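hiii so my PI (J.) wants the whole complex modelled not just the main chain, which honestly fair. so below is everything: two entries, each one labled with what it is. i double checked the lines twice but i was tired so who knows lol
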Amino acid sequence: MAEPRPTQNENQTLLPNGMLAPDFTLPADDKQKISLHDFIGRPVVLIFYPADWSSVCGSELTIFNEVLSEFKKHNAQVLGISVDNVWSHIAFSRSINLTFPILSDFEPKGQISKIYRAYNDQNGFSSRALYLIDAKGVIRWSYLSPILENPGVDEVLHELETISEQSLEWHPSMNSQQDAHV
Amino acid sequence: MFKTKLKTSPNENDHHLGDLQSTATLIEYGDYQCSHCRSLVFTIDNLVRHFKNNFCFIYRHFPLHTIHPMAEMAAIAAEAADKQGKFWPMHYLLFQDGKNISEETIISCAEKLNLQMETFKGDLTKLELIEKVHTDFTEGMRSGVNGTPTLFLNGVRYNGLLDYDILKQAIEHLQRPKNFLTFLS
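here's the output for the full assembly
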């Protein structure tokens, strides 16, 4: 059976670079909740994806899983987020042997996806979006992918390497926004 | 959309069918336990038969070990067979086994090809061959390979259907230099 074809919102724009990433707390499974602020001091890659069990989402998460060691070299945490419930996430994660958490943005449905402007109302689930958040919680890079296209890891990894190289350099937006965060 | 371009150009270290200087070059990043790659074998084979001249097919390894636990060993086995001049026969045999690949079936493939078995078994653990597979993977990842199979046509990632007629048409366009840019745009 063919997969349903989701629509692409051509006017969708993600949160801007330089902004403090909105904090959130979401369930990772039936016992554990994960918050963005758990990772202050480490870069975070957020992968918003449409749905567990879709072939493109499976490929996308698999490629991140395959090269997780590359992200760990930069002490970065990778987190997947979709509107599926935790039981779906648990089964999906096991089916492709994921070793990073996928978070359930299930109730209220898509709340965090909407805050990150990654939600697609027409489809009723998240678009395919990547965010790179630096160790101080600032959005440094984002990408909204065509929904049927797996963006791969090379661009986000390249950006992560760039911010790792810059991590000892002073960055004006960081100081002011870090103050606002306190 | 990312402009995904190949980081490593075709070179003599590549496993290739056809002349590396051909006008049209198709590179596949594949995994021996991937069912889509397996389906593509027949399509590629037909393309290679159809384009006798001015077309080159290159295969590079991209074993997804987290979902295909034997894919990396299979890739190393293909490299070990290559040391005895049997890369392509091993390549086809491994794809025949697909998801059922095991250490036993790899040995059985090598026996079918009449490889010198002691040498073959020794080569399976050779660092040089393991590194070749890892290099293919890393360079693929850096070139925008996002799963298997991923194809590059003249260095640009091909995102179209894996259909014989569509690929044939794409290659024919590339073989006519004046159409090269219009096809990509």
